[in-house]
Amino acid sequence: MGACCEGRDVSSQEARNEVVHIGNTGRGASFNLKVADKSKVPDAPPREEEVIASSEKKLEFSKLNSKDIINAFTAEGMEGVLSRPQLKRAFLSLGLPENDLTSPDAPFYQILAKIKNEKKLYDIRKVALLGLLLGKGSNIDKARLLFKQYDSGSLGSLDTGKVELMVNEIIDLSVNIIPDIAIGEGAGYLTREEEDAYEDRLRARQQNTFNEVKRILISEGQLSESDFIVKMSDSKLPLYKLLSSVGTRALIRSLSNTN
Fold this sequence. Notes:
Layout: H1 3-6, E1 18-22, E2 31-35, H2 46-58, H3 66-76, E3 81-82, H4 84-93, H5 99-102, H6 107-115, E4 122-123, H7 124-134, H8 139-150, E5 157-159, H9 160-177, H10 192-217, E6 222-224, H11 225-233, H12 245-254
Antiparallel strand pairs: 1-2, 3-4, 5-6
Helix pairs in contact: 3-4, 3-7, 7-8, 7-9, 8-11, 9-10, 9-12, 10-12
């Protein structure tokens, strides 16, 4: 998700109402992205996020390259879904512990349980998205992988509906599902009440985040792959944060509550 690929952390800028001006993006458009005044954002709690981020790093899933994860699951799936045996084969091919599939106490087991459908099948795109949000990789590589997950017809472009679906699914996994792995007992965990309260604060801002991201990503009817990659990896535009779950939550916290 070189210099342009690494991005910069908008949240580390001076505590003031700041407008980041983005010049021409190749589509004849420029954007102003409002960032919240950090001195006026009491609901950006560092401890909750630090605990969640630490829990993510402990996952074996997070130690792998996103491309390898996505390729493994895509190779096993059929018609957009994975059965339990197919999921197991993909896990084993990646060297992931089988315990993550069989033990209800395993954090990744809990994540998978929440994305399983009523037929007990797993949507390949959601599993791939987990690999992208939790796995390793450059911003450009992740942006390219992300685009392909939603360019289902290999048309080379995304329409508004696909962009909306993408942003919604990224936010849903990053806010409503992945953070639950941090719930437990002891100093290194969050209580259910702490985690719920943090999620509620993020949810209060996620609609504004959705609107802002959609506005910047797709100012015209179709978004080409090249424009998508530029916008998602441009260091001046913090959309690259959507390429990880930690970054997505940081983006939600940093955006202004008002349009």
